[in-house]
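Hey, weird one. I pasted the Probable membrane transporter protein sequence into the form twice and got a warning about non-standard characters only the second time. First submission, copied straight from the form history:
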Amino acid sequence: MTDLTLTQYLLIGLIFVWSGFVRSGLGFGGAVLSLPFLLLVHDDPLVFLPLIAAHLLLFSSLTVFLNNRAASRPAGGGTVDWRYLGHMLAVMMVPKLIGVFGLLTLPADVMSMIIFVIVSGYAISYIFNRPFRSNSRLVDTLFLMLGGYISGTSLIGAPLIIAVAAQHVAREKLRDTLFVLWFVLVAIKMAAFVWAGVDLQLTHHLWLLPCVTVGHLIGLRFHNRMLADSSGRFFRVLGLTLLAVSSIGLLKVLLDW
């Protein structure tokens, strides 16, 4: 990132504000809803994924900790469904490790194309209000395995994982259960980055962390309002935006080839 222009830095800062907002507002999306924009600024996932991963580790653990200290807790103790969390991790672990290996070996332009294609699929599901659904134990397992693999390659497997978790975890525990799951999965990826000698962009955390914090606080403020909006308007606009950005990104990668 040291070779980028001032305009690129400003755009990256704004995108990380957006990343913090959607992560705290929706409980997921810090990567899947921001990475396509970041790749339009600089087409290399390995530059941004360590930054996104570090922010997720910090804010997911902080949110779960604060929620569990709150006076009002759901029945059953705490805000995390540890039993189902263990089941998901057991199913996802091997595909996750395979995905991490793929990220560290595939060329940047190939990974960018894969990311844009996956995000386009998610965008279409948002536009037509047809989120991924799981209807059987076999489909649950397939969704979790595929979500784990995609999470390993690019941290954007959340929609598939949520399609399963939302059917088995109580509503009041879903958000924090997912935060703990993201923490474990991202910790594995960060360990792989360190082992492979990937630049963690430590210097840039100093100025991007305040950007993410601003977005995180705004997301917390509007979380209940977004949940109360049953019209799906927010997700349709989001889907159209993501589809446009992903289409531009795919075109850019193809032209560079």
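That's the output from the first submission. The warning seems to come from a hidden character in my clipboard, not from the data itself. Residues 191 and 197 are 10 Å apart (CA to CA).
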